[in-house]
Amino acid sequence: MELNNVKDARESGEDVEVLIVGAGPTGLALACELARRGVRTLVAERADRLFPGSRGKGMQPRTMEVFDDLGVVGAVLAAGGPAPVGMAWREGGERIGAYDMFESTAQTEAEPYCGRPWMLPQWRTQEILHGRLEELGGSVQFSCPVSELMQDGDGVSVRFDDGSTLRASYVVAADGGRSTVRAALGIRMDGESVDPAPMLVADVRLRPDALDRDNWHFFAEAPDGLLTLCPLPGTGDFQLMARYASEGSTPDTSTAGVRQLIAQRTHLSAEDVTDVLWTSDFRPRAALAERFREGRVFLAGDAAHVHSPAGGQGLNTSVQDAYNLGWKLGQVLRYGADPALLDTYEAERRPVAVAMLGLSTRVHHGQERRGAATQQMGIGYRGGPLAVGAAGVLEAGDRAPDAVLPGGAGRLFDALRGPHFTLLAVGNPAAGSADPDLDSYERDWLRTLHVPTLAAYGDGLFLVRPDGYLAWAGKSAGGELDVLLHRFTAMATATR
Known about the structure:
Elements: H1 6-12, E1 16-21, H2 25-35, E2 41-44, E3 58-59, H3 61-70, H4 73-79, E4 81-82, E5 85-90, E6 94-99, E7 118-119, H5 122-135, E8 140-141, E9 146-151, E10 156-160, E11 165-173, H6 180-185, E12 189-193, E13 199-206, E14 215-219, E15 227-231, E16 237-243, H7 255-265, E17 273-282, E18 285-289, E19 293-294, E20 297-299, E21 305-306, H8 314-335, H9 343-364, E22 388-391, E23 394-395, H10 412-416, E24 421-426, H11 436-439, E25 446-451, E26 460-464, E27 470-474, H12 480-488
Parallel strand pairs: 1-2, 1-11, 2-8, 5-14, 11-20, 22-27, 24-25
Antiparallel strand pairs: 3-7, 4-7, 5-6, 9-10, 10-11, 12-18, 13-16, 13-17, 14-15, 15-16, 18-21, 19-20, 22-23, 24-26, 26-27
C-alpha cells in the first residue's frame, strides 16, 4: 500500500503499521518521522481541515534543531521572525516603555538556534509540516473521527465514525488535551488549576495605523485583567491574549465580543479591529496522564500533558515527544528491534513533561523568567534506560552539540541529519583516519564519522541517536556498545 493511499486503506480495512490520531504539530511531526523511514502510516484527523489558529506560536531552539533534522527549518525561518520586545501601555494610550520578557542566550557553534525564541503562528507551522509530509509520500485523512479501539497482542482494531475499520500495529493518540483516545483507554489525567480565572486567545486583524508591529503590546492597567497583542510574523495579524480577573467570568468569543474586549482594555476602538479570524477560551491547568502507554497505544503531546501557555513549552515539548517515539517505532517496525524498546518512550519523556509542567506554572505566576530553561537545550536523558557511558566532555544522555567540521566539511548537524544513528569518533579513537573495526559497524541504519577534533565533544567515541542525543560514549568499541546496539535491531550482531 502506498503511503498516500490512506482513504483506500481506511475503507478497505487494509493494515497500516501506525495509526496517528490527530493532525496537529505532534501528529504531523511523528508522521514525517515515520514516513522518512518508510513506515506505513495513516493520519486520521476528526476536523475537516488543519487547525486554523495561532495558539502555539513560539519555537524554542531545541525544536528548531528537530525541524532542521526533519528538513523544514528553512521554511520555518522564512515564515517566522524573532519574538518582539514587549511594550507596556497605560490606560488611555500612553506608552510606559519597552521591556523584554526573555532572557536571551547566545547563539554558538554548538547551539546554532539559540538567541530569541522564533515565532510563527501554529497554523503556519502545521502547514509546513503537512507540506513536508506530502513530500515524503504521506497525507492526512480529514473528517475521520475514531469511535472505537480494540487491541490484542498483535495489533489494534480501529473503527471510525463512518463505520469503516482498519487494523494497525500501533496507535498514537496525538488528539490534544481533550483526547478521545485517552478517554477510551480510561487513562486518568492528574493535575490542578494554574489559574481559576479564564483566558481568551484570538487572532485579530487591525487597521494598519492602529498599532505598530515592532513590539509585543501589553495592556496591564485595565481593571478586568491583562490584555496583550502580539504581531504574528509573516502575516498582518495579531494574537490577542486576555486574562480575566474574576473566576466567574465567561469570555465572549464572538466577533463583537472580541472587538468590545479590545476597546474596553486598550486605547483602540472596536472599529480598529477589522477581522476576528479565530477565538478560543480556556482555564490554565497543569495535568499529566497517569501513563503514556496502554499496550500498543501511546499518548503524545497534549494528549499526555496540558499546561499553562505562559512558558512557551507545549508545542515544543509535544513535537519532541513525537521525535522521541518516532525513531523507536521505526527501529521496531523496520529493523526488528525488541518491542521493549518502546517502553523507553515513557521512561524518557514523562520526566521531561513533569519538569515542563512545573516550569510553565512558575512562569505563569511570575516566579521564573523565560530564559535558558524555557529554551529546552538542557533537556537530556542522563541515567535513563538508553544512556551508557561517558567520554570527552559529554555523558550518554546528553544532547549532541553541533560543530563546524574541520577542513571545510560542513557542519556536524549536516552529517547527523536523517533517520540514522551515527557512531562519531573524535580525536584519538579516530586516529585521523578510518578505523577498520569502527567501519565494520556501518549498516543502512548506522553511519560512522571520523573527526580529528571537536571541542564540544573531546576525545572519544559517541553513538548519536536519530533524535540527536547520545546513547553511548566511551573510548573503544565493543563491549557495552555492542550490547546497546543489539537493543536497536535484531540484526546488530548477526550482520557484523
